[in-house]
Amino acid sequence: MDPFTAAVLVIGALALLGLPIGLSMISGSIVYLFVRGQDMGLVAERLLNSMFTGYVILAVPLFILAAEIMNMGTMTDRLLRFCNALVGRFRGGLAHVNIVQSIIFSGMSGSALADAAGSGRIIANMMTKDGRYSRSFAAALTASAAVIGPIIPPSIPMVLYALVSGASIGYLFLAGIIPGLLMGLMLMIVVVYMSRRRSFPVEEPVPLRELPGLTVRSFPALMMPVVLLGGIYSGVVTPTEAAAVAAAYALLISALLYRSVSLGTLYAGLVRGARSSIAIGMLIAGALVFNYVVTAENIPQTLRLYLADYNLTPLQFLLLVNIILLLLGAILEGTAILLIIVPVFLPTATALGIDPVHFGVIAVVNIMIGLVTPPYGLLIFVMQSITRAPLRSIFRDLMPFIVTLLAALAIITLFPDLVLWLPRQFGYSG
Question: Is a pLDDT exceeding 90 seen at residue 87?
Answer without folding.
Answer: no
